[in-house]
Design a protein that fits this description.
By secondary structure, the chain is α/β, with parallel strands linked by helices. Helix content is 42%, strand content 15%. The strands form 10 sheets. The protein has a 9-stranded parallel β-sheet with strand order 21-20-17-16-15-14-13-23-22. Helix 20 crosses helix 21 (588-598), helix 21 runs antiparallel to helix 22 (613-620) and helix 25 (667-687) runs antiparallel to helix 26. 50% of the residues are buried.
Amino acid sequence: MPNSFLEHLHSPNRPVIVFDGAMGTNLQSQNLTADDFGGAEYEGCNEYLVHTNPEAVAKVHRDFLAAGADVIETDTFGGTSTVLAEYNLQDKVYYLNKTAAELAKRCAEEYSTPEKPRFVAGSMGPGTKLPTLGHIDYDTMKDGFAQQAEALWDGGVDLFIIETCQDVLQIKAALNAVEEVFAKKGDRRPIMVSVTMETMGTMLVGTEINAVVTILEPYKIDILGLNCATGPDLMKPHIKYLSEHSPFIVSCVPNAGLPENVGGQAHYKLTPIELQMHLMHFVEDLGVQVIGGCCGTRPAHIQQLAEIAKKLKPAERHPQLEPAAASIYSTQNYTQDNSFLIVGERLNASGSKKCREMLNAEDWDGLVSMARAQVKEGAHILDVNVDYVGRDGVRDMHELVSRIVNNVNLPLMLDSTEWEKMESGLKVAGGKCILNSTNYEDGEERFFKVLQLAKKYGAGVVIGTIDEEGMARTADKKFEIAQRAYRDAVEYGIPPHEIFFDTLALPVSTGIEEDRENGKATIEAIKRIRENLPGCHFMLGVSNISFGLNPAARIVLNSMFLHEAMQVGMDGAIVSPNKILPLAKIEQKHQEVCRNLIYDERKFENDICVYDPLTILTTLFEGVTTKRDKGVDENLPVEERLKRHIIDGERIGLEDALKQALEKHPALDIINIFLLDGMKVVGELFGSGQMQLPFVLQSAETMKSAVAFLEPFMEKSETEDANSGKGTFIIATVKGDVHDIGKNLVDIILSNNGYRVINLGIKQPVENIIEAYNKYKADCIAMSGLLVKSTAFMKENLEIFNEKGITVPVILGGAALTPKFVYEDCQKTYKGRVVYGKDAFSDLHFMDKLMPAKASTQWDDISGFLGEYASENEVGRNALREEEDAKKKPEEPKEKDTRRSEAVDINIARPTPPFWGTKLLQNGDIPWDEIFWHLDLQALVAGQWQFRKPKEQTKEEYTAFLEEKVYPILEKWKARVVEENLLHPQVLYGYFPCNAEGNTLCIWDGQDAHPTRARELAAFEFPRQRSGRRLCIADFFAPKETGIIDVFPMQAVTVGEIATEFAQKLYKDNQYTDYLYFHGMAVQIAEALAEWSHARIRRELGFTAQEPDNIRDMLAQRYQGSRYSFGYPACPNIQDQYKQLELLGAERIKMHMDESEQLYPEQSTTAIITYHPIAKYFSA
């Protein structure tokens, strides 16, 4: 059945689709109380609002629809049972999701027209648990998503959006849940997946963007993109990769930057225009077709996006993606340059005695160590086989794979004759695996069952040349089976590049006559498949060829067989990399004997074999032995070995090393000196991006095992010292916040670095934190929170700490926090010291400085660090400086591009201004009726005053309501403003002689002088676009070398300090309604004044021909030229506004900019004007 959203998305004109903005941000702006949520126990559960206060949710929907959004998302981000269970609402999953979908659909239908259809996306958030880290199992997560997806379907959503994804395994669970619903309903709807790339450049569990695309490429996804975590600037490299490689339509839904927190309120730095400029670039240059806003974006942001969406066409994309496998971290291409795809074979219970012994002993650490050793040996992919008679292979595969994925940065090949074991591994391996293998031995049912798994979990598949008659031994039979399998797999939907043929390397080493041609048949089959079945790959089990030989002989024969197979097109093999020799290291005599054995080049005389290469090879290697490397170098001193065990997360050999260390050192010293030294290195590696989160956790687990082993060797007092740790640390997620991943990571890192951590959990009221502080006599308190509202609770908690006489240092951490908020806003609140907890290791660093400073009386709760530790007080100031530096534009290239844009014509008429210098217009000079004509009534009535059309009203009824109720209020306030002199409009504008010189606009002192002789009064340097039209504001003015003096208009407008004063008076007098009306009027009249002044300048310069005759066209910039304000993308240097105010003489209207770059009076604005026909908003 055709889907209208897909038809719209793929229509010939390739429209830019605009999604809505932040549901949470815009619910919070309504200042909802606990009663709105149905009681204090549900406060913060936005999903429950569709039941308790649906109008609050509908208001958000309608605001975004009115702003021009094509798609609104349901209020179901946390709508799975596992999330709703935090509020004891798990039994209401179906009802809440279906209700939310129906509510969104009703709102969308109110605004939908044939010309601009509106759609509803069913929002499926990530939940609060990461399956890759073992927080939740795959089936539970998938079932929860399926329950949610069916409710959203039944509620009528037009598409599904799986968003803010932090774990690729979570994405797979959600995708398969949605597919189950599609199968049940007998139809499909579009799917959009949106992943979250953190500031460190990966998903939360460490997945890189290339791995994301490789893992998701096999799935039936319609749109793949990014949302949340950062603003668009940090998304650019990821969006560029998607543009160049993703086979799906690309989306970008960024935050409005990261919030500045003032008093617990979020102030997002990215303005609507700035967001528009960034996304315009992504659309025009990178081919993004779906845009929208995440955290911090409001209707004004979406309105700007909707405006440009009408005019933009996404750039043509020609994505190319190399076929690859992937771990949860990164990819491994199937085709290797100058090599073959090496699949490590040692984790194979069918072929390795050592592996079987470890599996039978359930020595999981030993098996992980074996996996890690193969990484060091050079494997690209790890084969995992747990087939062992008498054991529960499904459980074994789950137990082993779940450990490997978090310890080894390589993709996995799940190897079994039973598909149930493969699926068990797939449910814990979030990357893109290869399944080894399927064949026709048990008929087509099993053959297709493995193909079904490959499609369901997005995997490659190895197909063995075996049919119902058994293993193919001849080249002809191998090729015949390969042809059949190739056809069946491709018709089933497995692309050729995901097929690996195993032509079965059977032994040539048995001496049995029928085995003599096994090697030759295998190589011939590879050659024929390569020539006739395009796109496929090979996966050869090399070591079978030498079965039964001396280990040293096996290495040489395997290496030669591998070389011969590669010559005819073999590109993947299961081998032990350390058991393969390059050809140059094999003696010529050995090469010849092996080659003769592989191709069965025996010599006969009178039917008697006189030369048998098998006999010769056996004789050559008789008595020759091999050596095997150990995981941790046993030649290292035991102290260094212990350190390496911690860094590598290596538990094999750990107890032996600890026993040896106990002969030389007390147990407590081993912990405090050698083991903690290893954890310190782990912290440094994590901080520098060289170690990912799961590996850190593995090191922590190894540390825990070591401490547990050493405890019996310590005196009771020492054990108590070890348990109480280097210090006591309380941590809690604040009231109303259920996010605990970051908090728990802090717990793990600190507790395994010798600290006693009291983890109070989530949603903790301040009373619980204080009770724990008094009970445990904590050295430090840490509060965590992800939500912006959590920052307000943190400040409240700090105030209560003051009242209770608590002065210990407090660490504040979470995504909504910034160094500025912590070190400026929160420090002013708290009598003790506050610390910005950037991550777990910054917390550790602080504690590692705090405790010795306290011990040496060089810490004061009020003053902070003293004496030799005093430099640590600079950490906060350094963080602030880094934050400011991060906001600055990246360094310009050493050779700055100052070439004028060819898109901007020089040869245009240059106007003559009516005067040079400035002119001041005050109340009597400014006609109020003209100002009121320039009012943006939509922004005033719907935006400032919040008069939105209720869902039950028709458009006609709403218009009548405005006429009857709202417009009289507007007329009343217009009259009050004029009659009571409540606003003091003033305009300061002027014309300045200028010329462009490269990217700089020079302002001259005196219009009559020739530009080469004039004195420069000021200069404004503007950035230039690095691609596209390469625009720069300076290009819009006559170059200095033309000898023509050009004109540079500027303006500053204000409605006076009275706007703020009168609004404050109304608020203090509890006249809240009048406060709302007046404040809205002041804001919009200041904007109208800027429009009026700009229109006056255009008239005075003679550009009246294109002047709009209605306010809609005026606001849409359908006039000649443009105006820009400093701080926006085309002229981002806000400090240039100081020069602008000085040139205009802004002190005459009491306008100034303070040291924080805030303009006063509050309702004021400045602009520079360009008249060039090309000039419009752009981002440089």
